[in-house]
Every structure is written in C-alpha cells, then in structure tokens.
User: Fold tRNA-dihydrouridine(20/20a) synthase from Candidatus Methylobacter oryzae.
Amino acid sequence: MTHSKETQTYPSRKFCVAPMLDWTDRHCRYFHRLISQHALLYTEMVTTGALIHGDHHRFLQFNAAEKPVAFQLGGSNPRELAICAKMIEDYGYNEVNLNVGCPSDRVQNGRFGACLMAEPELVAACVAAMAQAVSIPVTVKSRIGIDERDSYEELAHFISAIADAGCKTFIIHARKAWLSGLSPKQNRDIPPLRYDVVYQIKQDFPQLEIILNGGVLTLDQAEEVLQHVDGVMVGREAYHNPYLLAEVDRRFYGESEAPRSREMIMERLIPYIQEQLDRKDGVRLNSITRHILGLFHGEPGARGWRRHLSENVCKPGADINVLLNALQTRERG
Assistant:
C-alpha cells in the first residue's frame, strides 16, 4: 500500500482498462498490472460523499505497483470535488476522472453520472474547481448523449464547454444512455455503438485527447480504433479474459520483451495474496481470486481451474493451498 506524494508523471492513455463497479478494486488492478506494465488502470467509481464522510483511506489505498492508475470520482458539487481531487493527488494517483457516464438510478438520484450531460455548465464548473485544486490531469468520462438529447451538436457543445474549463482528455463511451427504461446492464448493450460520432469529435477537436470506450473485444479492434482517436478503453473483456492484456505492451507501447506467461503471473501473484491474507485486516481469499477466474480462458484445463476455485475459496479455513491445488488441477486437465 502506498500513501505518498511524489512527482507525478502524465500517464499514457493509449490503452486503458475501464473503471468497473465491484470489479476494478485494488486486488484486480494489482493482478492486471502483472499482465501489462503500461496499460492505464482505473479504480471503481467512488462518490465524493464516501471520501468526505466515510473511511477515505479504505477507498484511496492502493499498492505502488499498480501505477499508473487513475481514480474515478462521482459527484456534482464543485467544492466537494475539489476537496476529493486533492485527496486523490495526495495519495499518489496519476489522474482524477469525473464520471459523467453512469446511467443507474442510484447515480442519478445523487445527481452525478450520465444525467450531468444535460448540465454542461455545471460539469465545467466541477472540472474548473478540480483543475485548480490539483496538478494531476482532470479527465471526464461521458456517453455520446442521453435520452432524446443525443444530437451531435449537443455533444459538441458539452465537449467544448468542459474543454474551456480545463479538461484536455475525454473518454467517450460510444453509446447514448437512456436514463429511464433500461438497466445499467442494458445500457451497456442495447443503445447502438456509434464510433463515427467519437471519431468526428476527434476531427472537430484535434487539440483534445479523445479515448474511445465501448464494444472493443480484441487488440486488432483496438488497433483499428487507434487509427481515428488517441486511445482505447476496454472494460468487460479485459476482466473476463484478462490475458488479453498480455500483448498490450508490445503492440501499443513498443515493449520488446515477451509477455509473462500465465504461470509466471501466478508465481508473482501468490506472494501478494499471502501477504493480503496475513494482514491484520486480512481479506478473504475470494476477494482476490474472483478476479483471476478468467486467467486461463480458452486454455486446456480452464474449466477445472474455475471450478476448483469457485467450489473451495469460500470454505472455512481456505488458504493459499486452494490456489496451488487449482493450478495442479488445471495442469492435470
């Protein structure tokens, strides 16, 4: 765990792993970092209220090995966002990202997430306050529109207003969001992908860094997207098939070394898991192993690996031996 202020470096957003609620916690990010040294990792979204009124250390702590890592905030009060952005910078994160894309009812009731796309001037005020409070980049993650407010002109106005407030990087999920009538899960699948809209934003705002999010399932797809924008963000596919990240460093960052094998990744992860289990506030084994079920996706023995972990990690006294036995089960096929 780190809690130190240090000289910040600006992260490369050429390839990012999306913030995913209940998924991209610190254990998941540590695991992903063992696979790719360069991909920019994002935290789960945390609200300003949780940081200001809750146990902020629990939300902000992370391992220095996870870097570069960005923190995603949810909120709409400029003063509170500025306070939280400063906390985030002080903890050593490389970027603070404002969530203007999540369409869930809970998020809307708190007046943050995708509903804020209807209030570009408020978002601009939030970004300006955050940018004044910190020296790390302040970025915004949004949709291409909401409900019937999905014209290109409205999106361009939104981007322009926030850019004028000091935001130079926009992560755009290339789908609109329906604020009512669809669940968050449906909002990730049902509204059609419109890469052309995001590509047009990059053409019309060439001075801005534009990152495309949504529907990217392969590195070949990512390479195609990068012909049109500055970066790509991958979400669920990177979680369910994490070894997808193994070729990221060579293909997008010019790394010459061969990627680590799945077995090498586990060799490095096991001491971390043991360390976490040994802590006074030790985590449950399942809190970490749930993130690695897909490591052997598509490989011989993958089903046995998943089954052994799923059936044994929650048993009383479950320890690192469950993981070692799962590896043996996989090798036996």
Q: What stands out?
A: The beta strands are 15-17, 40-47, 69-74, 95-100, 138-142, 169-173, 209-213, 231-234. Residues 1-8 have pLDDT under 50 and may be disordered. Residues 15-253 form a domain with the TIM Barrel fold (CATH 3.20.20.70).
